[in-house]
Amino acid sequence: MPDDDATTSAARPSRPPSKQSQSSNSIKKPSQPQPAQAPSPSSWFTLPQPLRRVFDRFPLVTYPANLLPQRSSKQGNENVLYIFQKIDPKSRDAPSYNPSCLKWQAYLKFHGIPLKIRPSNNHASPTGSLPFLLPASTSSDSHRPVSPIPANRIARWVVSQGGKEDPLNWRQDAYAALIDHNIRSAWLYYLYLDQDNFQLVARPMYVTAVSNALPVHWALAHQLQQAARDELLKFSPVIDPDHLYRQASHAFRALSQLLGDNKFFFGQSTPGLFDASLFAYTQIILDDELDWVNLDLKLELQQYSNLVS
Fold first, then answer.
1. Mean pLDDT of the chain
2. How far is Cα 136 from Cα 148, in angstroms, rounded to an integer?
3. Within 10 Å of residue 21's Cβ, how many Cβ atoms?
4. Are 289 and 238 within 8 A, CB to CB?
5. What is the sign, positive or negative, of the torsion defined by CA atoms of 301, 302, 305, 309?
6. Distance between CA atoms of 41 and 35, rounded to whole angstroms?
7. Which of 285, 309, 249, 292 has the alpha carbon at shortest distance from 98?
8. Residue ranges of the Thioredoxin-like fold domain (predicted)?
9. Angle between helices 273-285 and 99-110 (to 10 degrees)
């Protein structure tokens, strides 16, 4: 019976219900399913009270960028380049022992940029790596803090200061690969994976100079050697030092032929970024103040007089 007829039958005289109606009335209609309530976001994951109290005491925060090193210039009237370097007043303006730092140190010198050198490390760098340049503040903004310039922006900054922009040369990228791959790969093995050279050269520069704690020494030494190993394994499944040194020798020969009797590469009258990139390796490889035990890479380089003079 339709529900509409139930209301009209209520006004009629009542009659005892039949058995059929009793049985039909005893059958309950299935209830309509109720839509499930979506759990509140807070009920998805609830921290136990002990952990919640810990997080309440130590809230998660986003830290600002690293502050400048304490040895940073206070006057702000000079350009300061922060590099890997011995912490010794006698070597304040001496070349860096790190190729990446020495490349930009030489480049700035080539362009006659007046600057001071300060020893530092990656942990003290606001950019997370060395080198970085803290430019002198101008007279108009002498009271405003200057922003550090990372390595990949130094060349652009030099041009903005009136420096000469390196001319485009279609051959330069091809020859730059000899420095960035062949020579660099041999250098990584020479410094970090040759055990004698690592103990007497790399360890004093990058490990013991950072901390006096022996566990820190062990961890840093392991990280440095593993990073060099991982980098070399990107290009070959086997690390073969003889092959690496041969590849470096081929690169030295090609660069020596490219330079020829010229003083600087690509016929330039003044040294540019390419010259600085090669100098960054040759200077350190030939440095007699470093206690190299294995001289394989040095002997390969010394065969090409126009690269070492």
1. 81
2. 10
3. 12
4. no
5. positive
6. 18
7. 285
8. 99-197
9. 130
204: burial class by Cβ within 10 Å (0-12, 13-18, 19+)?
Answer: middle
Task: Count, in order, helices (H) and strands (E) of the chain.
Answer: 15, 4
> In 3-state terms, what secondary structure has residue 285?
helix
Query: What DSSP line would sit under 142-166, residue for residue?
Result: TTSPPPPEEGGGHHHHHHHTTPPPP
Helix, strand or coil for residue 181? helix
Residue 275: other Cβ atoms inside 10 A: 21
Domain coordinates of the chain in residue numbers?
Answer: 80-160, 172-308
pTM of the predicted protein model: 0.74
Instruction: Please give the biggest Cα pair distance in the chain.
Output: 127
Gyration radius of the chain's alpha carbons: 36
SS3 for 192-261, per residue?
HHCHHHHHHHHHHHHCCCCCCCHHHHHHHHHHHHHHHHHHHHCCCCCCCHHHHHHHHHHHHHHHHHHHCC
Q: Is the peptide bond before 48 cis (omega within 30 degrees of 0)?
A: no
Q: What is the pLDDT of residues 83-131, one digit of tens each?
A: 999 877 677 788 999 999 999 999 999 999 999 999 998 888 888 899 9
Rounded to whole angstroms, the Cα distance separating 85 from 102 reads 10
Q: Strands of 116-119's sheet, edge to edge? A: 116-119, 80-83, 132-134, 149-150
Sign (positive or negative) of CA dihedral 302, 305, 307, 308: positive
The structure tokens 């109290």 sit at 53
Strand partners, 117: 81
d(CA 125, CA 150): 10
**Cβ-contact 287, 180 below 8 angstroms:** no
